[in-house]
Specification:
The longest helix is centred in the middle third of the chain and has 10 residues. The model has no long low-confidence stretch (mean pLDDT 79). This protein has one domain: Orthogonal Bundle (Multidrug-efflux Transporter Regulator, Chain: A, Domain 2). The chain is globular, with a radius of gyration of 17 Å. It is built from four helices and three strands, in the order E-H-H-E-E-H-H. By secondary structure, it is an alpha+beta fold. It has a three-stranded antiparallel sheet.
Length: 84
């Protein structure tokens, strides 16, 4: 008797590792830790064996929530750029 399977969606919601986040936001993994602590990036959706994973949909929702639409590296750098 065949087992029932879950319906396949056209675009599954992938999980991203910290390295993929660093690439996405053009920063380092250490800066990802800082951005999570500051609340600019959501906390991981899954932690397994010490590895952190974020759902792409939660990152996109966070990006939309941010006023600039994307995560800036550090507020201090943005203030310096605005002052110049």
């Amino acid at each position: 008797m065949p087992r029932a399977s879950l319906p396949q969606t056209e675009s599954p919601d992938p999980y991203l590792k910290a390295r993929a986040l660093a690439t996405r936001y053009d920063t380092t993994i250490r800066s990802i830790n800082t951005l999570v602590a500051l609340g600019r990036i959501p906390k991981p959706d899954l932690i397994m064996c010490g590895k952190r994973y974020w759902k792409l949909s939660s990152l996109e929702a966070s990006d939309r929530k941010n006023t600039a639409g994307a995560v800036t590296k550090f507020a201090g750098r943005a203030k310096l750029a605005a002052a110049e």
